[in-house]
Amino acid sequence: MSLATAPHFLVVLDADSTLIQDEVIELLADAAGSRDLVADVTERAMRGELDFAQSLHQRVLTLAGLPDTVFAEVGQRIRLTAGVPELIAGIHAGGGVVGVVSGGFHELLDPLAATLGLDHWRANRLEVEAGRLTGRVLGPIIDAEAKAVALCEWAASSRIALAQTIAVGDGANDLRMMHAAGLAVAFNAKPRVQREADLVIDHCNLSQVLPLLGLRG
């Protein structure tokens, strides 16, 4: 890639409650009958009261025994946040790159990313044996540090300076990537994230990010 053809900027979004309206692990927990427990742990982790990796293992354990057909069922229930197609189209039209980094799961994010035309995405993977979830996560956990690493790696791969990156998120797990980015945007976010962000968007439409890039919203 020559400097002349390098993208002008990178936008990295959180997935759950940012790119999509839902918390995917809670949708999976519906099928397992553990929604209330998982929702409580998720909320505490989002506020920064619990270590993310420990909270993820605790929540995923409640999914043990679910058939892997649950991924397709839950995928049909996922609701995009308003303005997502417009945001992605606007980023690409403006010569930018868009990525999503998620504390959720590749099994749900992969088909969504392909449909939306994302340039990059990264998430956790759930272990499946004999067609059923084991209640364990495979590989390194995508936690706050991993989100920051993803943003930096994607910027470097496209020769984009960190000053030309924007991170958009809502929970404590997004703060490290938001601090690494040139501009941190709190979207429908928890109070701590709003306090530490450069800008706050309360209107739940992601196309509102476009004016921050000098693009039409």
Considering the chains and any ligands shown, give keywords for the structure:
217 residues; Rossmann fold
Total beta strands = 7
Helical coverage, percent range: 25-40%
Report the major sheet: 7 strands, mixed
Which CATH architecture? Answer: 3-Layer(aba) Sandwich
Number of domains: 1
Tell me the number of helical segments per DSSP (H or I, 4 or more residues long): 9
Shape: globular
Q: CATH homologous superfamily - what is it?
A: HAD superfamily/HAD-like
CATH topology: Rossmann fold
What strand order characterises the main sheet? 4-3-2-1-5-6-7
CATH class: Alpha Beta
Strand content: 15-25%
Give the end-to-end Cα distance, rounded to a whole number of Å: 29 Å
Note poorly predicted spans.
none
Secondary-structure element order, N to C: EHHHHHEHEEHEHEHE
What does this structure look like?
With about 220 residues, this protein is of the alpha/beta class. The protein has one domain: HAD superfamily/HAD-like (Rossmann fold), CATH 3.40.50. It is about 40% helix and about 20% strand. The chain is built from nine helices and seven strands. It has a seven-stranded mixed β-sheet with strand order 4-3-2-1-5-6-7, sandwiched between helices. Helix 1 (about 25-30) packs antiparallel against helix 2 (about 35-45) and helix 2 (about 35-45) runs antiparallel to helix 3. The model has no long low-confidence stretch (mean pLDDT about 95).
